[in-house]
Amino acid sequence: MSVAARRGAATPYLLLLPGLMWLGLFFAVPLVTLVSTSLYDPNGSLREGYRMTWHFATYGDALQAYWPQFRRSFGYAGTATVLALVIGYPLAYTIAFKAGRWKNVLLVLVVAPFFTSFLVRTLAWTTILADDGFVVQTLQAIGLMDPTGRLLATPVAVIAGITYNFLPFTTLPLYASLEKIDHRMIEAAQDLYCSGAQAFRRVTFPLSLPGVVAGTLLTFIPAAGDFINAALLGTPSTYMIGNVIESQFLQVTDYPTASALSVMLMATIVALVVVYVRKAGTEDLL
After folding, report:
1. Could you read off the pLDDT of 7-54 as tens digits, one per residue?
2. 210 and 285 in contact (C-beta within 8 Å)?
3. Closest Cα partner for 244 from 215, 217, 218, 224?
């Protein structure tokens, strides 16, 4: 093999090298550290140090103690993902098929919230959902809410915040998927006497399914581990597993329990993603 041919064969590996180094340093090494920390002696401390005792019982103890927060996290994340899909799909459809020359403007508006920080966007919802705010007063005025009712510090506020913050993650993959659909296929369906609704159900939606799967995953995965929305918009009774992990790491300093919860959260999400993608028939995303 000539020198030029050998260089050509090595080029793909050289291009992959920065990404592999990044993954190795900032994913593989922390993951191994996290798993090993979860197996430390739970009676250890920062002052006395931790010993590796392969204490697998930490997983069972952590799950038993914080099962409600685990269940609440996936409930909130699933609800927010469905809401983001219900809101994002019509929005992406309109931008892709109906917006015309306003398409770029609408896309900028979709990503506009990213111009401010995640924290500021979430704090803004404390004003929107405040007891004396426009939303609560309007719902009370039209009889949809009890005069003493409130939205802030409830599960509704936490789910609303998660939905708002992750809506662009649902909308943009949907738009990219819808934008690639050949309009002649929709016209062909209508030429074969499909109504508009039938053409959407049999042509448009199946072809947009990769965008649906990608968008819902990009929303559900970070939402399940989120803790900012529950901390700012909820109360301890609405805390998610991310709040528990944050507390165990930074306040309680129970590193084995915090690590075990983190590993279980990650493993559960991976399992759910594999099942979801296989059920949706889009294994190419894996």
Report:
1. 777 888 889 999 999 999 999 999 999 999 999 998 888 778 888 899
2. yes
3. 224
Which tokens in the block code for residue 39? 């197996």
Task: With a cut of 60, say whether residue 225 has pLDDT above it.
Answer: yes
pTM: 0.89
Tokens 């609405």, residue located: 238
Q: Percent of the chain having pLDDT more than 90?
A: 77
Q: Average pLDDT, stretch 78-93? A: 97
Closest C-alpha to 93, from 232, 211, 6? 211
Report which of 65, 71, 76, 77 is spatially closest to residue 256, judged by C-alpha positions: 65
Quick one: which of 269, 240, 268, 245 has its CA closest to 258? 245
Amino acid at 125: W
Q: With 60 as the cut, is the pLDDT of residue 213 above it?
A: yes
186-199 confidence digits (pLDDT tens): 989 988 888 889 99
**55 Cα distance to chain centroid:** 31
